[in-house]
Amino acid sequence: MIKQKLIFSLKWEKIDIKDENYSPRTGHTVVENNGDFYLFGGADSDTRTNDLFIFSLEKRKWFKLNPRGIQLPTSRSGAQSLSHQASIYIFGGYTRKGGEYFNDIYEYKTIEDEWIDLQAINSPQPRTDHTFNKYLDDFFVYGGRDEMHIFSDIHQYKIFENKWECISNQLYVPSQEDQSQLLEQGLVVSEPKLRFGHSSVIFHNFMYIFGGWDGNVTLSDLTIFDLELKLWLQPYQIKGQIKGRYRHTAISTDTSMFVFGGIDQQQERFNDIQEYVYQTQSWTRVITVGTAPSSRTFHQSIAFQGNFYVFGGFDGMKRNDMYRIYLGGNSPDQNRDQTEALQQFDKNFTLKGQDKQKLEKVQIFTDDYYNSMVVGEWIKLRASGLLFTPRTGHECLIYKKKIYLFGGTDQDDRKNDLYSYDLYTNQWDKLLQQGEIPMPRSGARGVAYKDCLYFFGGYQKKSGEYYNDLFYYDLNRKRWDRNVQVGEYPSERTDHSAVLYEGQLYIFGGYDGKTRFSDLYKCNLRTASFKWKKINGDGTLPLNRFGHTAVIYEHSMFIFGGWNGHDTLDDIYQYSFSSNYWYEIKKVKGTRPKPRYRHTAVVCGGSMIVFGGVDTDQQRFNDVFTYEIDKRRWSVIQTTGNQPQARTFHKSVIYNNIMFVIGGFDGSRLNDLHHIALPQSLYEEDYDQMRRISRPASSASGIMQTPMYQTEEDNKMKDIKYLQKQVLLLRRQVGELSSLLKAEQENVDDCKICFSRDIDTLFLECSHRVMCSKCASNQTIKKCPICRVEIQRIVKTFNV
């Protein structure tokens, strides 16, 4: 028995927009993709538009985009849009009454900042005021109108085939037994009326359609379409009432559909929120407080991180305002009620005998949550979704607010599965894998670049079957491909390091079961050839090793620790990409970590953060050390909270200043997840710069497009760009050498014994300054290390 739901007042918040805003309008479309909001088209006070804006929640600013494309969408109002992977899709719309109606489908690639006319086949009739939803990897259009007709058809767009299919004539005909079973659940088989200006949301495999206008009256009915069974249903005993309306908006949560605004046939506009609870089949008006939006219609809404957002619309005037209300704040009793309701709902809908996943209420995260985390406090996360098995030797990459986990070794075998963890929904998902899937392996290493995850090497068995293949997984196509090895490529290995610098993958070190390496290779990911090259750097090369870490800071790679076959290491080497030179950093300040390998390292601000690992005596660690790169200083980060067990063979990634630790080995294999806020000193970049860095222009596959012909002007531009690149390289080298010189000068006053404290003593009678007072207090030191003259007395000195 489901308890009656407690009603709490929810608070509206008006979001103050900084700087320029989009023009007031109606009939626009808004979607969320990767934490950003995208607004397209609509009708402002002057005309229909096809402009595109992006909104940063962090900055509370709209930015107008200027996307590329051979053919941009025509200016329009009444289009509908949805978000899928790293792209935004729009369908339909119209120019004006008596004007042109559209049935085209466009894709906007958010990474490439480019529009593509997909030119799909078998398109539905042109229309506006329809709905456009996504279920799995397919899109569905329902209803709408053109100048002469109102529709109730439903069309399915198959993205991988770029083809539309009308499924209105493919409906399932239920048996008498099916109809009796449906009746017991309060449902009858009933096709919907013609309509436009309605809303639709997806919940599980059902599309819920509410309201609209049938040409005579505004509607208040609710119709359900089973997307798997292709069956129209209607609840016949809905509790509660809601006024008929059209051109409203609706969003879905784990338990309910929420409807906001709209207008009825008497031209009364609304600003209420009505909740339809799926399990109880009941309508309830949501009580709200705060600064509510004005009564309006022809606006847009999205759901994001528990909030219901409202954008623009018409309240007697066209608007460009923005509001939100948080719908995710429930009491513990409500959470239990919702879980029970979901379980009951899943139990009821069993027409095809399918077991539906039980949804568990877990915490979701927001930018406010991450920004308010206490520095140094460990938190163990309880995530929802399909969790990976406990394992070691997996690889984790972070890309666009998701962590991707590949391979490793669980209690049964080596793995080649692929999972994703959403940093905001706090949910694990197992990803679909197609194409040339890598062999199961442990110890692979990888990088994320332009919507692709690249993985190199690893091993299947200690006695053999080590790999030197390079695979990449295209996040857009959900497909694996294997790169053909071209050029000087690395030999088979595992426990190497992999970093990304300026579009190139760098592989250092590793182990093949017999030999430990200290070689360095790079593979150009920016071109279609993926050509490898061995790098023969100058300077002091690191010892052969595996199980080390490598991080990028500015224009250098820093190697720390590892195992050389005899001992675990605690040394640091710097490789300069600008000068192709290796430096061993011998003189460092502070408390150096114990030697270790199979630890992890990330960069936060100007520091390298090291966590965990194991030493020669098999002592595992769970300490956190920070190495300030410019100051060459180690220190321990004092932590609190639910600290991870001491472990090795785990993975760590960083998002802003939040470090995530995933799985590993503490005596048993683990599949836990912790995060911790780290101290940071790096200043915040301009938002435009951040977008340019994180979203370079490229194709979806990560391969740069080469022009088919080049003019003399092109060649001149190439020469100019080459010279500019050389000047930039020289500047980097000068800056790097200046930094190294400065670091050496700063080390002049370091104690020549411990290299961690300043010199604060003077030896007499030779007058040499050599040691700190702690080292000078060693009774075994009788002579000055510089001149070998016997020490008569030691005087403590002080800096002024």
TrEMBL record:
<feature type="domain" description="RING-type">
    <location>
        <begin position="751"/>
        <end position="788"/>
    </location>
</feature>
<dbReference type="Pfam" id="PF24681">
    <property type="entry name" value="Kelch_KLHDC2_KLHL20_DRC7"/>
</dbReference>
<dbReference type="Pfam" id="PF24981">
    <property type="entry name" value="Beta-prop_ATRN-LZTR1"/>
</dbReference>
<dbReference type="GO" id="GO:0008270">
    <property type="term" value="F:zinc ion binding"/>
</dbReference>
<dbReference type="InterPro" id="IPR001841">
    <property type="entry name" value="Znf_RING"/>
</dbReference>
<dbReference type="InterPro" id="IPR006652">
    <property type="entry name" value="Kelch_1"/>
</dbReference>
<dbReference type="InterPro" id="IPR056737">
    <property type="entry name" value="Beta-prop_ATRN-MKLN-like"/>
</dbReference>
<keyword id="KW-0862">Zinc</keyword>
<keyword id="KW-0880">Kelch repeat</keyword>
<protein>
    <submittedName>
        <fullName>Kelch repeat</fullName>
    </submittedName>
</protein>
<dbReference type="InterPro" id="IPR011043">
    <property type="entry name" value="Gal_Oxase/kelch_b-propeller"/>
</dbReference>
<keyword id="KW-0479">Metal-binding</keyword>
<keyword id="KW-0677">Repeat</keyword>
<dbReference type="InterPro" id="IPR015915">
    <property type="entry name" value="Kelch-typ_b-propeller"/>
</dbReference>
<dbReference type="InterPro" id="IPR013083">
    <property type="entry name" value="Znf_RING/FYVE/PHD"/>
</dbReference>
<dbReference type="Pfam" id="PF13920">
    <property type="entry name" value="zf-C3HC4_3"/>
</dbReference>
<keyword id="KW-0863">Zinc-finger</keyword>
